[in-house]
Write a structure and sequence with these properties.
3 helices, 243 residues, single chain, 8 strands, Immunoglobulin-like, four-stranded antiparallel beta sheet, 2 domains
Length: 243
């Protein structure tokens, strides 16, 4: 075994990333030329837009089979749906290099299979994640008002890749690019197309969980009190019954 392939025993390195999609409603001429209702982008990238190509080699996106070329990779030449003129489709053929994304249009939601390949020196197998393409908001805009037609619908997932006992060569690459490691921003972004992940969001979710746990505990205590009261009443009735 070469020194570069030797594993770093007892060492784990974590690299966070996000994957998901942004969708907007088609308007004007593009909407009139087809039955497509939305344009969307599905991607894999750093939490804050950092370059992740030092550990991610390439990404394949498997779209719905109704697309004429559903498997998008560096070898793919994305084309439009058979029923739609090519000029109405935006494509992003260079998926072996950042940004790792696919731009398309369509009218339906479906599950996208995303296969992530790592740097060859990592000797790690590719991993697959799944994302449900989201085109519709399914909720109000947060102020109780209907979702604005021109506001993007954002659906991202936060995940982390853990490289356990990486090879010496790959560990050196990870170390050299440590400055590119994503960290969660302190505050939630106010940009409409931004992901929702932040220290603030994490704290709010923890507070929600804590409040829910307190409510569950309170309900359990109330049930215990009712059971104790019911047992007392039952014992009293038994004592009143003649032997």
């Amino acid at each position: 075994m070469s020194s570069q392939a030797k594993r770093q025993k007892g060492i784990s390195v974590t690299r966070p990333f996000i994957y998901g999609n942004v969708a907007t409603t088609l308007t004007g001429k593009k909407a009139a030329e087809s039955d497509h209702t939305h344009k969307w982008t599905v991607c894999v990238r750093g939490v804050n837009g950092e370059d992740v190509s030092y550990f991610i080699k390439k990404v394949q996106f498997k779209l719905h089979e109704t697309y004429s070329n559903p498997l998008r990779s560096e070898f793919a030449n994305p084309t439009s749906l058979v029923s739609l003129p090519p000029r109405t489709i935006a494509v992003s053929p260079a998926i072996e290099n950042p940004p790792f994304e696919v731009n398309e249009t369509g009218w339906g939601e479906f599950e996208i299979n995303i296969k992530i390949y790592f740097h060859p020196l990592s000797t790690e197998k590719a991993v697959t994640v799944y994302h449900h393409l989201r085109l519709h908001p399914y909720e109000d805009d947060g102020s109780g008002q209907p979702w604005p037609k021109n506001r993007p619908v954002v659906s991202y997932n936060y995940d982390e890749i853990v490289f356990n006992e990486p090879t010496e060569a790959f560990y050196q690459i990870l170390s050299d690019n440590h400055g590119l490691t994503s960290i969660l921003p302190l505050k939630r972004s106010t940009k409409e197309s931004a992901h929702p992940f932040s220290v603030q969001t994490e704290q709010e979710e923890l507070e929600k969980l804590d409040a829910a746990q307190r409510e569950v505990n309170a309900q359990i205590e109330r049930l215990k009190e009712r059971m104790t009261q019911a047992e007392g009443e039952l014992n009293a009735l038994k004592q009143e019954q003649p032997v």
